[in-house]
Amino acid sequence: EVQLVESGGGLVQAGGSLRLSCAASGFTFDDYMIGWFRRAPGKEREGVSCSSNRDDNTYYAASVKGRFTISRDSAKNTVYLHMNSLKPEDTAVYYCAANPLFPLENAGEPYYFCSGAGSPSYWGQGAQVTVSS
Q1: Is the pLDDT assigned to residue 55 strictly greater than 80?
Q2: Nearest-angstrom CA–CA distance, 64 and 61
Q3: What is the mean pLDDT of residues 59-71?
């Protein structure tokens, strides 16, 4: 059974930092695209950052590029989202999501899923991040 469990959310002041963790189990970690998505109140879901180990391929939304960094630890089956210079508009529920890689090299899964062209098959329960001004 695929499981994704987020942790590390909380309340932080603008300009501060947080690190979200996503512990994955039930599948072969390196065979999956794993990404972070968020949904703010009254807004549509946004793909924040998505990553594939196969092609060393990473996608960042324009709104977070230069401030957020995604990283993967294959030894721990964990994906992290390092969030720096947080802004009140980063306030949202953050979800970890995963999808098997396509049977093609250079298929561009991070862009495909984070841009909204496709929806990952597996989702975590979400972690609240609140940034105060």
Answers
A1: no
A2: 6
A3: 97
Give the position of tokens 């089956």.
Answer: 77
Query: What CA–CA distance (Å, rounded) separates 133 from 13?
Result: 6
- Mean pLDDT taken over the chain: 95
CB 21 within 8 A of CB 72: no
Residue type at 7?
S
At a CB cut-off of 8 Å and minimum separation 6, what does 44 contact?
none
Half-sphere exposure for 97 (CA within 13 Å, toward CB): 25
**What does the pLDDT look like over 73-88, one tens digit per residue?**
999 999 999 999 999 9
The answer to whether 35 touches 70, Cβ cutoff 8 Å, is yes
- Cβ distance 73 to 13 under 8 Å? no
